[in-house]
Amino acid sequence: MAQTDYYQALGLQKGATADEIKKAYRKLAIKFHPDKNPGDKSAEDRFKEINEAYAVLSDPQKKAQYDQFGSSGFHQRYSQEDIFRGFDVSDLFRDMGLGGSDDVFSRIFGGADGFQQHRGGRGFGTRRQRGEDFSMELKVSFRDAYTGSEKKVAFSKNGKREELVVKVPAGVENGSRLRLQGKGGEGIGGGAQGDIYLTIVVGSDAQFSREGDDIITERQIRFSEAALGCALEVPTLEGAKRIKVPAGIQPGTKIRLKGLGFPHMGSTGKGDLYVKIEIQVPENLSVDQRALLEKLAEKGL
Known about the structure:
Blueprint: H1 6-9, H2 18-32, H3 41-57, H4 60-77, H5 80-84, H6 90-95, H7 101-109, H8 115-118, E1 134-140, H9 142-147, E2 149-157, E3 160-168, E4 177-180, E5 196-202, E6 209-211, E7 214-222, H10 223-228, E8 230-234, E9 241-245, E10 254-257, E11 273-280, H11 287-298
Parallel strand pairs: 1-5, 7-11
Antiparallel strand pairs: 2-3, 4-5, 6-7, 8-9, 10-11
Helix pairs in contact: 2-3
């Protein structure tokens, strides 16, 4: 279910309102409830699917993340525990005349490895226990975040050193979390393995800064070049590019180079690169320069 389109699961279009989401969930929950479909595995799978969809789309923060990053990007940030944490439809089930939600979910999600654990509860026994999740930082350079890269991470598991090669997607942002499913601690009693969560720390760059998926670089030009216009060679992460600076450009103006920013992680396209133009003011003038500037000042410049 990890890659299910949650809107499609509820028969909705993206942008559906909270009332529309709740109404669609109620209708489907009644239709596919296990008590109304005893022994029907397909109905049970559908019931799981609509509850996962509702757990995300009924939570404003999770819904915003899902809308922004899409299914793939969302699941890199949220585990099953994250999705179901705080999810409680017991009142809604009572209003619909259905059985207790905890009892139903504990049956279909599998006891101690199931719904109560996803919600942050204590579970239903010790026969199965999910393995521990590991968290660590992964440092990548500014340019590796732009191109994507493979990094080796080392950690201790059961007292032994282990290593994994991690694929860092192009466009990853500082503070993003990557989830390595099933690479964490060993489960107990047949429980699932935990996950590893890597928090990305992106290094700075001497030439570039980042705003969302856009890249900013700064270039200084002389006053005469600003007044008359000029051609300028500027750095990008795809190599140097030549741009035209229009006559009369003002300090702080940004010139846009379309499609030379960071890739949009989890979707197509890229941000832009902006060249911020600043005017270089000389600290010391020669006699001739001062004389020329005094004449320009007399002319109103």
